[in-house]
Design a protein that fits this description.
Chain lengths: 343, 511
């Protein structure tokens, strides 16, 4: 048993999980237990924890999508803009201003929004894998241009929609649990199967560590990169659907604004190095939950909005320190040297 | 011994890594004007001792004295400032900076804040000129071969007026000409009173320049003695801990291997890549074909062309009589080719991955991404090769970064053997590998050929070429200039034809 525990403590997900538990516990203590309370109303589960899960679902989806890009040593900072595009496409169709022929079909709206995200991701992938543009620059193009494209789609307006079917994406419940959680679970399972049951996980890590050597061993580096960025675009589109269903419309200027930073941070907090190499999707999901619970709890404690960002960044600094290998070694060194002296 | 006399003393050095005791109670001392060879098998602890000395690793126990004063450098920079200058085993330069920048990085001459590029470039060119290396110093370093990079690293270290110079396998990819030049410079520095620590697996080189020999085995200090008092056979016995049968000369098996075989596997017809043009070569089934030539003569360029690393732009590659489109490594692999590249750090190992993952990588890529090997299969594969090539590692899950240089080389070799190709191209496959294992690998090469595999063998060690190759093409300045087969292959003949009969003249290497 203790052997297993020791093994687990070396797992990438161990520290992020501890941090998450600590944050949740702290919340519980500060709120005097209220934080953990759950109510069932009309067969639906309500409570702070559920809020964190539901509100964090966008971020979890994004983190799942972006982890592999980061694992190859790249990045994708266009996800926020892609969310805006996806929301714009979907809402404009539901609203009827786009493709009025389908008379606001929610299914068509969702499919086309996802395809738009996939296309954005492929575009990024081509720039990075074929044109060999640095990932941060390549995805910056769409980050900047994406909101403009979204504006074009909505003709520069904020589109509000009225469709219960569409609202369901964010607000619906199945088996008492919020629907977005099922989306997260689905994406998670698909990616886990893909990276664990095929050799793609190994190849992605190899590319992240040394892409030249990887090519020399016959790994199709370019094709894998293309696939990874396409997937990241697709996940951004999913997040865009959840967001627009939540605000019941498309706001191109604010949808997913700066969320790419939170997404990258989630992965980093999960312990995947931004230089590439070893990665863990579950750890990234936990990272996203950490960020979400910090945001939620800072608000709940009643910290003034001006201060929330500072508090959030302080907590992030602490987490990054805990994650840092150097820092751990330093601590370990201090302890072991003390131990040697005492001996 | 009188400590006052000594330049450098290391006493009772112990270094323990998780799962490995790399050094245990090791002693080492170096005098002024002494060239001291530090010898031992792969994984004996040579590089670790050097890294402990220069502050890369913190020692667990022991003391270090420089000119009688206790020192504990915390970083290579600190060691440098104390007068200990080092060329590490894995060339540690910046590939995408210019040669001149690499020579002067961190200590640009020029008045405060301003960098005087003209002076830097001129001085760098001068410095490399001392090594007969006449290259364009404004070019990026990665445009040059490993050997040139190695020379640049040496030049960079030598330039500093140091008390102690450490060279960890500096000659592993140099040809005889550069080695001679390096030795001249070492003797000159020695005459100036510098103490030099020299790590190598070439025993002839040890006897050529060293005054003293220290042997390590499995992290233990075995002993030190003047080079003159320790004959080669005794030395080897100390290194490997048992008697060693010498492998001089050319085994009959090699001469026989594939010589006269006329069953064509691969043909290059007027093939050209961005780096070399008009290559015409036939490779027969079951032969070991050598590529001989000096630095930059085009040996690796042909290998890269065949393997699709540098895609073919002209001419044709035929495999089994049919045109083969190998414009990418994976395509070459599917056509039955394997390629163990010369530059193990940048083109070979995937450092942060485990030994198991590194060994399985090429085979997995060949099988395709969707057909993942099971954990058990890959473990079995790794264990097989760890045993077959005696790779020294605490476990198959050890990060490959943590292996000694020679053992990393074995991992790459294992990776390609695992794919069981029809044609295996080995570019400096025994680079940094100790003599015992080297002999094993040479035997393996001959055996593979006898079993029907074609091999291309590239090595800067002429005696190794003689031992393994059944046939050999000679390259000079990116041109095929001759061929030797069967009994014509001898060290004399190779050296003569490589240099074109004439005296070797320093020439500019261009890419
Ligand atoms: N950073 C590290 N972490 C863990 N183990 C290490 C590390 N560096 C070296 N070792 C281990 O220490 C031992 C000695 O390694 P070292 O690199 O000193 O060998 P070496 O004598 O230089 O061999 P070679 O001739 O192959 O270069 C090896 O068994 C190696 O696996
Ligand atoms: Mg070494």
């Amino acid at each position: 048993m203790s052997q297993k525990l020791k093994q687990f403590s070396k797992n990438q997900i161990f520290w992020p999980l501890m941090v998450l538990l600590a944050i949740l516990l702290a919340n519980g203590v500060i709120s005097g237990g209220q934080f953990f309370e759950m109510r069932i109303v009309d067969g639906h589960l309500y409570g702070r924890l559920i809020d964190i899960l539901r509100n964090g679902s966008k971020l979890m989806v994004l983190a799942i999508g972006i982890t592999m890009a980061l694992a190859t040593g790249g990045t994708d900072i266009s996800v926020g803009s892609v969310m805006a595009i996806s929301g714009a496409v979907a809402c404009s169709i539901v609203d009827g201003r786009l493709l009025s022929g389908v008379s606001g079909s929610v299914t068509v709206a969702i499919v086309l929004a996802l395809l738009a995200g996939l296309a954005c991701g492929l575009w990024n992938g081509v720039l990075i894998a074929k044109a060999k543009i640095q990932p941060i620059v390549a995805t910056m193009i769409l980050m900047v241009a994406g909101r403009g494209i979204a504006q074009l789609i909505t003709e520069g307006k904020i589109v509000t929609i009225n469709s219960d079917a569409y609202y369901f994406i964010n607000g619906g419940y199945i088996l008492g649990l919020p629907f977005p959680l099922f989306i997260v679970a689905f994406a998670f399972v698909v990616v886990m199967l893909f990276t664990r049951k095929t050799a793609s996980g190994l190849f992605i890590e190899a590319i992240g560590v040394n892409s030249v050597s990887s090519r020399f061993t016959g790994i199709k580096v370019d094709r894998i990169k293309l696939m990874i960025y396409a997937f990241s675009g697709l996940m951004a589109a999913v997040a865009g659907l959840i967001e627009s269903a939540g605000i019941k419309g498309a706001d191109c200027n604010n949808a997913g604004l700066l969320i790419e930073l939170d997404a990258i941070l989630s992965v980093a907090i999960g312990g995947t190095s931004l230089f590439g190499g070893r990665f863990s999707i579950p750890a990234s999901v936990v990272g996203a939950l950490i960020i979400q619970s910090i945001s939620t709890s800072v608000l709940a404690i009643g910290v003034a909005p001006e201060v929330t960002l500072v508090v959030k960044s302080l907590i992030v600094i602490v987490i990054c320190l805990v994650q840092s290998k150097k820092f751990k070694e330093m601590l370990a060194g201090k302890f072991s040297r003390r131990a040697v002296k005492e001996a | 011994m009188d400590t006052q006399e000594k330049l450098l003393e290391m006493e009772h050095i112990t270094k323990i890594f998780p799962g490995v005791r790399a050094l245990h109670d090791v002693h080492f001392s170096l005098g002024r004007g002494e060239i001291h060879a530090l010898l031992g098998e792969n994984g004996a602890g040579k590089s670790t001792l050097i890294k402990v000395l220069t502050g890369v690793f913190e020692r667990d126990e022991g003391e270090i004295f420089l000119e009688g004063r206790a020192i504990s450098p915390q970083s290579p920079q600190a060691a440098q400032n104390m007068g200990i200058s080092t060329v590490y085993q894995e060339v540690n330069l910046c590939p995408n900076l210019s040669v001149a920048e690499n020579v002067y990085i961190g200590r640009e001459p020029g008045s405060a804040g301003r960098i005087d590029w003209k002076t830097i470039n001129r001085k760098a060119a001068e410095l490399l000129g001392r090594f007969d290396l006449h290259i364009d110093v404004t070019q990026n370093l990665d445009r040059y071969s490993v050997a040139v990079q190695q020379m640049v690293a040496i030049a960079r270290a030598v330039d500093i007026s140091a008390k102690v110079l450490i060279l960890d396998e500096p000659t592993s990819s140099l040809t005889a000409v550069e080695v001679r030049k390096l030795f001249e410079i070492m003797r000159m520095l020695k005459a100036q009173g510098m103490g030099i620590i020299f790590v190598t697996h070439f025993l002839d080189q040890v006897y050529e320049v060293s005054d003293t020999i220290t042997v390590l085995r499995g992290g233990e200090y075995i002993g030190s003695s003047p080079a003159a008092d320790l004959p080669k056979m005794q030395l080897v016995a100390k290194m490997i801990g048992k008697e060693y049968e010498d492998l001089e000369g050319r085994p009959a098996a090699a001469a026989a291997a594939g010589h006269g075989a006329k069953d064509l596997f691969l043909r290059l017809e007027g093939a050209a890549s961005a780096r070399i043009s008009d290559v015409n070569i036939d490779i027969q089934k079951g032969e070991v074909l050598g590529f001989s030539g000096l630095l930059g003569s085009g040996r690796s360029e042909i290998a890269r062309l065949i393997f699709g690393v540098d895609p073919i732009v002209e001419g044709d590659i035929e495999i089994g009589g049919r045109h083969a489109a190998v414009r990418e490594p994976i395509a070459a692999m599917r056509a039955g080719i394997g390629f163990c590249p010369e530059n193990r750090k940048s083109e070979g190992i995937v450092g942060d991955l485990s030994v198991r993952e590194n060994i399985m990588l090429a085979l997995q890529a060949k099988q395709g991404m969707m057909k993942a090997m099971s954990r058990r299969q890959s473990e079995k594969l790794a264990d097989t090769y760890i045993k077959a090539l005696s790779i020294k590692t605490p476990s198959r899950d050890q990060s490959t970064n943590n292996l000694s240089g020679g053992n990393q080389q074995k991992v790459i070799l294992a990776r390609w053997l695992a794919t069981n190709p029809d044609l295996l191209i080995l570019d400096e496959p025994t680079r940094g590998i100790d003599i015992g294992t080297k002999a094993e690998i040479q035997k393996l090469v001959i055996k593979l050929a006898q079993d029907g595999m074609s091999l291309v063998f590239i090595s800067s060690e002429v005696d190794e070429m003689v031992r393994c190759c059944g046939r050999m093409v000679i390259l000079r300045e990116k041109k095929l200039v001759g061929e030797l087969a069967g009994d014509e292959i001898s060290e004399d003949m190779i050296v003569k034809s490589m240099a074109g009969g004439a005296q070797f003249e320093p020439k500019t290497e261009t890419v």
